[in-house]
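Weekly sync, protein design subgroup
Attendees: M.S., D.O., the rotation student, P.L. (late)

Item 1: inverse folding check
M.S. brought a backbone from last month's batch and wanted to see whether the design step gives back something sensible before we order anything. D.O. pointed out we never logged the input encoding, so this time it goes straight into the notes. Structure tokens as presented (307 positions):
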């Protein structure tokens, strides 16, 4: 057992809490600790406080980690558990992603229709994610997008209340909330997930050797390989949460990445696929190739690699 309980910081949405419990269970199991070795410390994140506007318009992914980053920095917590999909591509040096838990189902789930083809003409799709909106409009330009923020239960309730006809949710989130019967999972390569979807990451202070060592015991190498490749791709594309990008990675030592970039209205799309060793320059090379091929309507949403 650690000398005193380790403090695990998490957002307090039901999904974030489920993920925090999964992290605690895995860590205790790996080290033979009892549950009281880890104290769960929940926070209401800025991203959860503002529900009426798209995240991309109010400050982006930083709003999911701002409070927990502060608590890590001042020592109020020892580590923080995040959906890697929500963690910015560039993180401060003093933070380290010390563990990635085994990736869950990476797919999106369509709720409200049995398939994309079965969605009635002109139906309203509830989503605030640029990738989901663009991907759907690319396949079904007749559909209308309506903004749809909030946690999983809120979005399902909004759908029930008729605020939209169809919505899209991550299979991983539904699974972790025990809602496995909901909707139809959409398969690649027709429909691609978001970078790092389905992966839970644990961050701690880079100089906290003890916590890093404890977390390394539950790091899942294949997930790390895929998430690292997807984050390297995002970095080299200069994408942010406004940029409609979809990516699907298979493999671990050697990875195959299938990528699509869109204009926000979904009308213009470019894409590519490549296979390379996970720890190579492959993601950056693929990004450079995609950007050099990208039509203007797509390219303006990607700024390229940082200078
Ligand atoms: N954008 C919010 C968010 N961040 C992570 C997940 C689901 C879990 C995951 O992808 O790891 C969700 C909900 C959703 O997209 O339906």
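Designed sequence read out in the meeting:
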């Amino acid at each position: 057992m650690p000398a005193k309980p380790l403090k695990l910081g998490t957002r307090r949405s039901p999904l974030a809490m489920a993920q925090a419990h999964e992290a605690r269970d895995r860590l205790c199991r790996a080290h033979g600790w009892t549950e009281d070795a880890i104290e769960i410390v929940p926070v209401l994140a800025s991203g959860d406080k503002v529900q009426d506007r798209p995240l991309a318009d109010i400050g982006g992914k930083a709003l999911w980690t701002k409070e927990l980053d502060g608590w890590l920095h001042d020592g109020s917590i020892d580590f923080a558990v995040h959906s890697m999909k929500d963690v910015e591509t560039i993180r401060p040096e003093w933070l380290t992603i010390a563990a990635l838990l085994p990736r869950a189902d990476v797919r999106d789930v369509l709720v409200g229709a049995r398939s994309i083809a079965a969605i009635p003409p002109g139906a309203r799709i509830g989503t605030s994610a640029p990738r989901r909106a663009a991907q759907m409009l690319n396949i079904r330009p007749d559909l209308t997008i309506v903004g749809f923020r909030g946690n999983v239960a809120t979005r399902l309730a909004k759908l029930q209340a008729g605020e939209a006809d169809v919505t899209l949710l991550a299979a991983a989130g539904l699974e972790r909330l025990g809602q496995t019967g909901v909707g139809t999972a959409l398969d690649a390569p027709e429909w691609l997930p978001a970078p790092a979807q389905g992966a839970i990451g644990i961050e701690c202070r880079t100089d906290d050797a003890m916590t890093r060592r404890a977390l390394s015991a539950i790091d899942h190498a294949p997930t790390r390989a895929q998430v690292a490749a997807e984050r390297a791709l995002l970095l080299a594309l200069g994408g942010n949460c406004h940029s409609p990008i979809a990516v699907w990675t298979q493999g671990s030592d050697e990875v195959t990445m299938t990528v699509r970039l869109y204009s926000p209205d979904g009308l213009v799309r470019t894409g590519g696929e490549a296979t390379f060793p996970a720890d190579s320059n492959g993601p950056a090379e693929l990004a450079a190739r995609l950007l050099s091929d990208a039509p203007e309507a797509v390219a303006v949403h990607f700024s390229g690699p940082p200078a």
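Discussion: The CA atoms of residues 99 and 219 lie 4 Å apart. Residues 108-185 form a domain with the D-Maltodextrin-Binding Protein; domain 2 fold (CATH 3.40.190.10).
Action: P.L. to compare against the previous round before Friday.
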